[in-house]
Amino acid sequence: MDRRTDLAEETIESYSYKLTRFLKWCEGEGLDNLNGLSGRDILEFKQYREEDLNPVSLQGTT
């Protein structure tokens, strides 16, 4: 497989993982409609992630 193809697949998998975690968090917070998402919600999600992960894992997630 071409390196660019591999990279693209890994990128898609990474985005999918991050999006799935975010959507599960939204569901747990009762956020059913992303149109109602506020800056405060995003901050709370970032704080939630910081509690779960070490600083190296959080690089590039802002």
From TrEMBL:
Residues 1-62 form the Core-binding (CB) domain. PROSITE patterns: CB. One of its GO terms (molecular function) is DNA binding. Keywords: DNA-binding. This is Site-specific integrase. It comes from Natrinema zhouii.
